[in-house]
Amino acid sequence: MVLCQPKDRIREAFNFLGVFDGESNVPSMSYAVVGGGINGLAVARQLLLDNPEAKVTLFEKEASVAQHQTSHNSGVVHAGLYYAKGSLKARLCRRGVALLRAYCQSHQLPYDQCGKLVVALTEIEEKRLQALFQIALDNEVPGVRMLYGEQIKEVEPNCVGVAALYSPETAIVSYEAIAKQLAQEITERGGTILLNCSVQSLTNQGEQVQVMLTTGAYPEMFDRAVSCAGLQSDRLAMQSGDEPEPKIVPFFGQYFVLDEAYTDQVKGLIYPVPDPKYPFLGVHFTKRIDGRMTIGPNAFLSSARENYDGKGVNWQDVRDYLGFAGFWRFSLRNIPAALREFKTVLSQQQFIAEATKYVPSLATMTVQTATRGIRAQAMDNQGHLVDDFVIRRDRHITHIRNAPSPGATSSLAIAEYIVREVMTAKS
Fold it and tell me: Which end of the chain is more exposed for a tag (fewer CB within 10 A), N or C?
C-alpha cells in the first residue's frame, strides 16, 4: 500500500508496474476500484483471483483501509433469516457465509459460531416469527428451528420469551481484520492500493474509464471501474453520470459494552422480532469477537455521514437529506419509530430497558459507551427504504449503490457476482 502521490510520481509507479506501455495508456486489462472498505477490497481481490495478469488499482481516501462501515459494525455473520426468497440479499448472503467462513479458516482469522435467538415476547410477535421461520427455511438456513417457553433457556438460560427462532450457525467475526487480510492479499497478488486518494468522478470515455481525483491530479484511464464508496456512494455515482436515486440518508447506531461482571449472562446473540411498522430492528444483544457483550444499536438520524464520535455537524450532509423529498415522506410515515429511537438517544437507562425486556436479570447492569456505527441507508424519492442490494452498471463502470446488512457478510459473494456476472454481462 502506498500513499497517493503527485501525478508524475504515480505515472512512474504505474510504468514500473507495467500498466502504461510507452505512448499508450491502454494496458492488456486494467481495473480501478474505488473504496477500501470490505466490499471494495473483496472486489479487487476477486479481480486478481479471476484475472491474475490484470492490473488492479484500489483508491482509498483514508490513510488506511476499513475506516468506515467495515470497522463500525456489529461483526455478525448473518445466516439469512430475514431476506425474501429470490432476492439478491438472500442469494449472496448464503454464498457469502460459506466464502467468509472458508476465508477465516484459511487465514487463521477468528470465526465464532455463537448462534442467535430471535425472540418473541407476545403472541403477535410469535405470528411474525413464524413467517420469519418460513423465510429461513426458504433460504435453506442450516439448523434453524423454533423454540417455545422453557426450550429457550436451553440455549440462553437467562432469556425470556413465548417463542424464539434459533439459528445455531449465525457467527461473529472481525470485519476489520478480514479487510486488512484482503488488503495484504491484494498487494501480494500484484495489485496496488493507493491511500489518501479521494476519487471525484468516474467517466466513460470511449472504451475506457477516466478516474479523476478530488485534487484533479490523476486523470488517468482504466478499462473498467467499480465504485464501492459506501456512505458516499450516491455522490460519486451522480458525479459520474449515474442516476440520482437511491439517495443515502445516514443513520447512526450507538452501542454499549456490558461491564465484565455481566458479560456471562448472555452466551450469543439475542434479537427482537422485526416489526413491519418500523424501519429498523431495535436494540439487541450482540457478542463481540473479543468475548465482550454489547447492546445496541439504536437508529437515529445522523448529523454527518462520517461522524463516529457524535460530535459536530456536517452541514453539507444535513442539507443533502433536508433537501430530499424522500426523506420528508419517510419521516412523516415513521414518527412513532423516531420517538422510540429518540428515547434511547436521550437516556442510557431507556436503552438498557429495551434490551432487558429479553434478559430481565440484567436490569441493574452497568455499561460503557462503545463504538458508533453509521448506516448508509439508501432511500428512494417516495421515502421508501431500499431493502435489496442495488448494483448497477453504466457501460464500463459498476456502482454499488446499496449494500446494507448483510453487506459485510455477503462481501466475498458480492465480489464474485460483480466480477463474474455484472461486469461480463452484455450491455
Answer: C
